[in-house]
Design brief:
The complex is a heterodimer. By secondary structure, chain A is mainly β. Chain A contains no helices and twelve strands. In chain A, strands 2, 5, 6, 10, 11 and 12 form a six-stranded mixed sheet that branches. Classes of the chains: A mainly beta, B mainly beta.
Chain lengths: 110, 113
Amino acid sequence: AQTVTQSQPEMSVQEAETVTLSCTYDTSESDYYLFWYKQPPSRQMILVIRQEAYKQQNATENRFSVNFQKAAKSFSLKISDSQLGDAAMYFCALTDKLIFGTGTRLQVFP
Amino acid sequence: DSGVTQTPKHLITATGQRVTLRCSPRSGDLSVYWYQQSLDQGLQFLIQYYNGEERAKGNILERFSAQQFPDLHSELNLSSLELGDSALYFCASSVRPTNTEAFFGQGTRLTVV
C-alpha cells in the first residue's frame, strides 16, 4: 500500500526567509513520481514541482527545490526568499495512484 | 487555467437526493481522477479511470459511482446524500495512467442541507 505522511500541520516563515516542508512516503513500486502541490485560499490545486524517483538530482523550479532522499523515503520542499503569495496549503503526492498527504498550512509574515 | 473543466461549480441539494458531477479533461489526457476534500482536510482519492476503464479505486463509498465515457469526459454520481458528503469534489486529468503529473479542475462545491 502507498502512504504519504506530512507531519507538520502548520508552518510559518518571515518574508524573504527560507522554509522547509517535510514529507515521508512509503511505496512498493520501484518507479514512481513525487509531487508538491499548492492550494491557495482560492482552493485551486497548483503543481509546484515534481521529482522522478529514478533521477538522483534534486528538482528545482525557481525558488522551489526538493531534497529527495530515496533510501529514507523522504521528500522535502524548500521555499527560498519566501513571498506573501506563497501562503497556502502544500500537499505532497505520490504515484502509482496519485495519493496525497494531509497537507501543511504555510503562513508568511511580512 | 488548467484546461480541466468541472461543472457545476456549486451545488446545493437536500439529504437523500442524487447528484451528478461532470468533468472534462484536458485535451489529449486519457486519465481522470476524482477526489473529495472536506473542510480543511486533505484530498481523499476516490477513483481513477484510464481510457474508459476503471484503473484504481480508493475509499469510495458504495453510494458513489463514476464512469468515463468514450469522449473521455467523466461523471461522478453521488446518491442517498448525507450531510457529511458536503465537500469540494475535484477532478484531475493526466496524459498517462501513472508516473506523470495531474492537472486539476476548479472543483465542485457540494452542500447537502
